[in-house]
Amino acid sequence: MGATAIIISILAIVISLVAIKISPGTLKRINRKPAPTEISEANEIHTTEESARERPWTDYSLLEQIIAAQVILGEENVFGPREVKKIIFGDGISGGLDGFPLIPFDREELKRAKELGQYLIFRFDKDEDGQILSIDRIIKRFKTHGFDLLRVMLERTSFKKEKFYLEDASTFGWALCGKEFIEGSRNRGYSVETDCLYDYAVSKVFQGLKCSDEYGSAIGDCFQSLMNSSSDEELFHLKFNQLFRRSPVEAFYDLLIYYYRNPDPLPYGQGFRTNALDFEGKNVYLSFNNDGEIQLDSRPLDSSLFNLGVIFSRRG
Description:
Layout: H1 3-19, H2 24-31, H3 49-54, H4 62-73, E1 78-79, H5 81-89, H6 107-115, E2 119-123, H7 135-144, E3 152-154, H8 163-166, E4 173-177, H9 190-205, H10 213-227, H11 232-236, H12 239-244, H13 248-261, E5 270-277, E6 283-288, E7 294-299, E8 308-309, E9 313-315
Parallel strand pairs: 1-2, 3-7, 5-8
Antiparallel strand pairs: 2-4, 4-9, 5-6, 6-7
Helix pairs in contact: 4-6, 9-10
């Protein structure tokens, strides 16, 4: 082969190499952070924002949805079934994602949750022995697995006889939870809190997004009750407050799971009301006191307390 032919061959090889480009999607896959332990077996699945837009959200497997949720919310704000299992039940518990429901919040809802500083969490209602995951059971589970960060203070020892402590469990499924108090809700009575919660739901959470019939009806009923100056007791029993305020066990569950990864689940000394009453008819609330303890206590609905406010939450 002559010198000219050799030079031409070399130029052809160089041109072909230059013509090979890495697409933006490939670059994102290369630069993507490794999946967390919960979904480490999914390393071969490459979920990018571009590909997610090409397929309907409901066509995704749960594994793909979790990865996409991590991209949107950040890995630190997604607590999926397998990770929660390990936190509550211990490292020895294994298993895939079969039998767990898909994430009921679509991409737009997750993006809105990101804007509002919310996190996504999966709640179990029972442990691996089929026992109800009540507050009492959760505390025992954590102590069994040596979770030395768990410190719980019950202001009223009578709470240990309450249904919300012994029998109630979280609803099995996904939930979105806020981290911050709704603006204007701290140190207010129940009616003002409900007004703040209503404004937040309408102007922040669901603004411009589709709302389920259940949520739409609850929001409408709440508006009418606020316009009619309903009493605190009447507002408490509205489906609106039952949907968008957590039960004691849900609040307790969420705080513990979030606390496991984040050392400060709430600013010290601050707390929020739940959707339950104790046997005296007082509203149960949870707070994180100055000693780093999760505190359960209750107050009358018409009373206010410094640094007690509303934190939004909703189930799927």
